[in-house]
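Next comes this protein:
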Amino acid sequence: AGANPAAAAVGGALMFGGAATVDSLLNDVELQVERPPVGICDQVAAIFNSLVKDNVDQKVAELTAIVTQDHHPWLAYYLVKCRASKEVNYHPTYIEFFEKLKQPRLLELVTNTTYDCLRVLLKSVDQAVVSTSHRTVLKNLGYWLGQITLARNKPLKGKHMDLKSTLLDAFENGRLTAVLPLVCKVLEGVQKSKAFKMPVPWTTGLMSLLAEIHDVPNLRTNLMFEVEVLCKHLDLKISDLPRSQLLVGRRPPSGSPDLSRAAEQRNESPPATGGALRPEAEAWTRRMGAAQEDDATRAAAAAAAVSAGLGAAVAGYGQYGESMYAAQRGHEDFMVANLPQLVTISPSIPLFQMLPHLAHVVPTAVDRAIKEVKSAVVERSVTISCLTTREMVTKDFAMEPDENVLKKAAQLMVSSVAGSLALVTCREPLRVSLTTHFWQLITGSREIHDTTGLEDIVHRLSTDNLELGCALIEKAVVDRALRDIDSSISGPVEARREQRAKSPSVPFYDTNYIQPNSRWPQALPQILRPKPGPLSAQQLKVYKDFANITMGSVREEQP
């Protein structure tokens, strides 16, 4: 069992409707303030939509003319919820804008509103552990808080935001995945501060705790990376930092998502299908096996095509292009051993022509993004698809005596449903995660001093490798679903075997669904009502057609 049962329960909703969920949290009744008239709200939105560094003075005059002090609480809430939480690149402009308004009380309101929004979001910190969008908003608001307080030589209010206690609690409850990046973003404000630079005791204490967390065995690589990036921002060497010893005697929970785990072994043999099938069922299951083999062939062909494209892309990188993947495999435990051969690096990206050794960040970023998204996708997709398939199949096959036909139908349906559900739910979170990891890894390189044009490169890499990530997640989901569905229908399968062994001449029926006095299936029209004996070829076709449903990244290109 994982460390956060609440997160596991709500993970699906957050991972796949994350943005909507975060917006609903920020609409919490605790944060609500009186809104000004609609006309003023629209004018304020128009001012912020057109605000840039070059027209700050003009926009200050426009805002001053329409907003009174009575509107300041709403203005602070609007800025934090609708702007600062989403538009990190505009944080310096917003700070300059509010400073030029020369309203100290307004800046204080903005700071307090930021604390309030973070408090509300941290109430659902277990949800943030599995929600990419939730963590992104936490990081954005953390960076914003650091810029309006520490960077302006203003201390954090301990009663609102005790970073040290928050980190320790997160460590013991498996929540560092959400909390540690937030704390690191707040502390980035120290970079511009004159009052909080090392060796100020408050900053030293926090950096010492982060260094100690960094040394935790098996800590997830992305969490270690957050601490390393912060040290680089503050011009510190993590090896020079003292360790706080605050973690002595503390332990993370069993199965903590903050710690990396070895990949599951998936050397599963195909299920046995002993016993004779009637002719139409035998032909049906044989065609299904051929369809599955065809899928595997298409997948291998697609992987080979991707690999060939990568070979062309890397060919121009000299000798390093041939050796980087061997070196990288020894450095990073990829979820797929040959991932470096599957990723796509466009030869038109000039960055990798000038700095070819940076090409190793591509498989690393793809691997981290997939691992970040995969667990929630697998749990949600497998749970829903297995439950749905079990209920549908056991009811439709309530009078089907052949357990092999039941199993084949269940495998066909669950693989189709699970794969389709995984693709629908993972695409957007994976896109966000790819963008984040590509940006962090590239900008974290010592050779990158100017980020001009980097957004386009990151967007291109994310787009080029999105389908690969989706395909790998889909495969993980389908593999798990096929294993779980066999266990889920083991009871009905065993019931058919026992019936055949004890009373082979008596027609089989599942007593969970077929009872003499029950409304179902007697209330169904005659043509739909289950009949004793095997299902007809026409009825079996409903499940056979699952094999023909277009599903997955690989099949999208098939006619």
User: Anything to note?
Assistant: The CA atoms of residues 36 and 71 lie 6 Å apart. The chain has 23 helices and no strands. Confidence is low (pLDDT under 50) at residues 1-20, 262-278, 290-331, 552-559. The longest helix spans residues 403-443.
